[in-house]
Amino acid sequence: MKRLQMALIFIAALALAAPASAKDQWLVAFGEEPFTLDPAGKGALAAVSDYVQIHIFDALVDFTGTSLTLRPMLATRWENPNPTTWRFHLRRDAKFHNGDPLTADDVKFTIETQLANKGATVNAYLGPTEGARVIDPYTVEITTKTPFPALLFNLSRVHILPRAYAKVGADAFAAKPIGSGPYRFAEWQRGQRIVLDANPDYWGGRADPKRLTFRFIADPSTRAAELRAGGVDIAINPPIAQIKELNAGDTQILTIPAARAIAYSINTRQKPLDDVRVRRALNLAVDRESIVRNLLQGFGQATGQPFTSGWLGYDESIKPYPYDVAQAKRLLTEAGLANGFDLTWSISTGTWLADKEIAEAAAAMLGQAGVRVRLVPTERAKIQKDLQGGTFDGITTGQWGTIAESEIMVRWFFRTPKIFTPELDARLDDLATAAARELDRGKREKAYQALAKFAHDQALWLFVYHLDEVIAKRRDLPWQPMVGRGGKAHIYYFTLAPR
Amino acid sequence: MHGYVAGRLLQAAAALLGVTAVAFLLVSLSGDPAFILLSPEAGEEQRAAFRKLYGLDQPLPLQYARYLGHVVRGDFGSSFAQGRPAIVVVLERVPATLILTAVALALGIVMGIPAGVIAAVKANRGLDRAVMALVLLGQSVPTFWLGLVMIRIFAVNLRWLPVSGYGTALHLAMPAVVLALYLAALLARVTRSEMVEALTQDYVRTARAKGLSETAVTIAHALKNALLPIVTLIGLQLGALLGGAVITETVFAWPGIGTLVLDAILRKDYPVVLAAVELVAAAFIVINMSLDLLYGVLDPRVRAARA
Predict the structure, then answer these.
(1) A-chain residues within 8 Å CB-CB of B262?
(2) Quick one: B94-255 is in which CATH superfamily?
(3) Which of A226, A349, A378, A397 has the highest number of chain B CBs within 10 A, making it the mutation to test binding with B?
(4) Which of A223, A450, B130, B172 is the most buried (most CB within 10 A)?
């Protein structure tokens, strides 16, 4: 009997002790499961897999903080001996999880592997990169065919692989990835969780918490319930209807302002949208402040430019178009459309916060100015294909997570889509090329600001809002959203102290 | 009998081929995976290389012929998203679906059939009305709503059960009950109507006239004869559950076939979608064949007709 009592007391003590030590492990709930933990995997969608990968792998440089500041990572310093050469000096205390030291050979191996990995997103980050050359064990040079200033930012998304990758083989590596990052891979229960353990030998010191577990819970309401029940410590993208409830008691809401640009691209090759007066009229007819206040509950910003704050090219002085239906009608009358016109708009539904509701509200507002909008819910792959091919009518819906560089986003929205009149296209080509080739970051910023101004003045988008990222967490968890690898939307370090 | 079985096997093969063709056509027409599996950061160069890698740049009929050729040899291709064999990706989700299906079905039968029998025996009286009101409720409450309400009560407020996930009996409790309630309602309704009809039959009157107890009459005579449509319904529901209870699995983050296929469809991971569809279709066919054989056991007339 005594023994049983002792056992019961022991069990009770264990049960009581468990919550106290629970903070050794943080549980983070995401809606989407990573595709793969192999950075050289085929078609590995960057954002979805990166939120785990950045804890396992390091890059040469990093962009962190709300203003996306450039920080050294594996490279302690770097220089451009000439406009097409980047020389990186590596830290000497970085080691892979298998014990191998991280040297210039590993960087060269990574660059060459990803240059050959043609069918993957990461290949695009390398742009006109030619190759890499080992100068000494801790110095490596990366060369490009043409000056490519965006490379520095892009390299923050190129996770450095060990040369052992070739020996282990892609399949085995994907099953048990080996990086040099603050966390080591422990376990992946498919459809459920990925478990990482802090790397005691990390060059930046052992990270806190000791164990980091990502859980995949597709339903936002279930994520919120897990958070409230204490099943997880952080829930990404909680349901907007429960924000108030989640910002009270044991739980708390955090936001990352303007983490995503929402892009309503206008097909200027179609009549009457080739007329700038018509495009401006569309922008004047939408009450974006009311949309942000009522439909987004304040989790967004009204905007008049493609870039969000933190992005190279964001220009504070570009203000949103005013809400002025009378002026919109005047412009339409001037353009010979006194009776309004019919407009098609391809929209996403349920992909982004309140996306359908916002399009419906904007369509009703446009109706006040005489524009008869037909909303066409369209599937994501088709939206993207149509934007690039110019095969949509009227307006289409896109988005881009805020990053520190602009080259890749400008290419997607303003260079490759076949939706611009020849005059607009020629002007955009000048602006984008000038910006992409400029090595001086200050001058490059000015060049992208010129592009932003042009997009605003020519009303190339129906500018409405930029979207905040919303995260819910347990109030007692000492974590602040720390943006990693330059991606404001989705990619955060789930660790205690900034490194 | 052998001829009968051989005929059924041929039918099964034809059905599988048909399912494969339709599924392949549907997924191929539903959009270009290169735009979903690669981020927009990728350019047309990367997308073209991706299509080439997986043969998506080939004409559709050729893609289909190739696919069939591989499937016949047991190769279901690689998951576009994960780079692992599609059949492995699907099979590792089977246990979760099987256990949820088995427990939900068992619970549903245990609750539903007795409820239907009782309602039929007490037809149009108070108890019948009460049971049928519950049945109506069980069939009309949306599963996602019921799931969220149960989470709220048992996991968030009372903290008796984990909100979601997989691994222990506690994790299984809520999703199994949500599915079982729906199944029980369905079974109770069908059982009741079949039983009401059976209880008016001549053989029931004869049995009563022979002086058998009311319990024996109800169970051994009426229920046995009412069982055929009930078994059919159970078989159909079993097939549907094996295909993954998408909504329930999603609400409870249950790592079964349903969440996998939904995910794969959204990601345009066609090899995984196809492998799952074929696996589920095969299971469906096996269930249907077993049902047919079971009919013979339950109903001597069926046996006689096949001989």
Answers:
(1) 218
(2) MetI-like (1.10.3720.10)
(3) A226
(4) A223
